[in-house]
Amino acid sequence: MKNRLLGEYRFFMTMPRLMRLVLITNMIYAFVLPVIDIFVGAYIMRSADSPAMVAVYQLCVYTGIPFTFAINGYLLKKFNVSRLYSFGMLLSGVSMLFMMSLRHMSFTGVAVAGFIMGASFGFFWANRDFLALDTTNDKNRNYYYGVETFFYTITFILVPAAIGWFLVSSTRHGWFDGNITSAYRIVAYAVIVLTILASIVIHQDKFRNPKQKKFIHWRYDWLWNKFLVLAALKGSVQGYLVTAPAILIMRLVGDEGSLGLIQSVSGIITAFMLYLLGRTAKPHHRLYIFAAGIIVFFIGALTNQLLFSALGVIVFVLCKVLFMPLHDIAYFPIQMRIIDVLSVKENRSEFAYIFNHEFGLYLGRFLGLGLFIYLAFFVSEEVALRYSLLVVATIQIMSIPLAKNIIRHVNRTIDQVKKNNPDLDAPKLNV
Q1: Which residues of the chain fall short of a pLDDT of 70?
Q2: What would the 3-class secondary structure string for the chain be?
Q3: For residue 132, what pLDDT is reported?
């Protein structure tokens, strides 16, 4: 086992230094994401007991992201990408502290906290995506996302279990005079410490900024337009995956302790499977991984709809734990490959595609969360939690043939660009 681990470490050290620094930064920040994704929703549920308020918070988060992407594009002309990246990470802790300083939970206060969190995600994801694109190539991207999703999955096991235990124990044993808000505030302080550590790592070397070209365009290649549809389908499910699980568990299973325990059940196997996929899978395997993740998610949503009980929620959350990393480990390398090709073909900044991609995601998030809010307000909470998840999962099935078509289109476009530009110096196209 020791030799095996040393072998994996040596393989990691063969990767480019800048890629390693981005990975290590993301590994540290991986301990923050479960807190934001899971326990912020649980905090709102505990304080206000309103699924609609959780959905409004998430919608404001998603509204803040594209807004900040645009600001980030202009700030890149004056600030290094690593500084903006670390600022986004630090801002996530500030958002949590702001929410927990609210004396009374209101839609306005939750909306403002959500927008600040969205701004933090905007700075984080805009610069993270560029750094991932710039420090990797098509051959090592499966490994990059395999390692990244491995750590994200591990932290989604350890962090919910540890924080769930901490929050329940603080109430049970009367820590902080039994004030659960104080316990949540300590969690927020821990988040800030982790974001500071991640910021220190990303500043250990100098990263280049995107080419200073125009990054707002209204017309794109047909290949990119098809990929935006895939992005919208991905976005439609994202809103549910950071909103519905917390509400389902608090309604049908129990408290935050259950929330943490359920997230941990099958994650270990998933994490090592993802690392193995990233280590061994080739670019032509991405479609199979992508399809497997969507099928697993559909099974979980169908089980939740049929049972709508504690058991159904457990099965759904377990399927969600497997679906998210499987989907991402295939989706992001496909996105990066398209940007490699089209940034050369259309002679545009890579950030133009990263920026535009966020609006495809936002459209899907808006439609998905809009459906949830409408059903929760005007029909019933049970319908929103029980049936709309299955609708979203069914729509996701459409992603499979679309992704297959996009991959074929990418390969044809690469051949076309090389044929039309035989003297083109574009190393990433030749990988």
Answers
A1: 1, 37-39, 41-42, 45-46, 177-178, 239, 242-243, 246, 249-250, 253-267, 422-431
A2: CHHHHHHHHHHHHCCCHHHHHHHHHHHHHCCCHHHHHHHHHHHHHHHHCCHHHHHHHHHHHHHHHHHHHHHHHHHCCCCCHHHHHHHHHHHHHHHHHHHHCCCCCCHHHHHHHHHHHHHHHHHHHHHHHHHHHHHCCCCCHHHHHHHHHHHHHHHHHHHHHHHHHHHHHHHHCCHHHHCHHHHHHHHHHHHHHHHHHHHHHHCCCCCCCCCCCCCCCCCCCHHHHHHHHHHHHHHHHHHHHCCHHHHHHHHHCCCHHHHHHHHHCCHHHHHHHHHHHHHHCCHHHHHHHHHHHHHHHHHHHHHHHHHCCHHHHHHHHHHHHHHHHHHHHHHHHHHHHHHHHHHHHCCCCHHHHHHHHHHHHHHHHHHHHHHHHHHHHHHCHHHHHHCHHHHHHHHHCCHHHHHHHHHHHHHHHHHHHHHHCCCCCCHHHHC
A3: 92
Q: pLDDT for 244-265, tens place per residue?
A: 776 776 677 665 555 555 556 5
Q: Which domains are delineated in the chain?
A: 2-430 (1.20.1250.20)
pLDDT at 236: 86
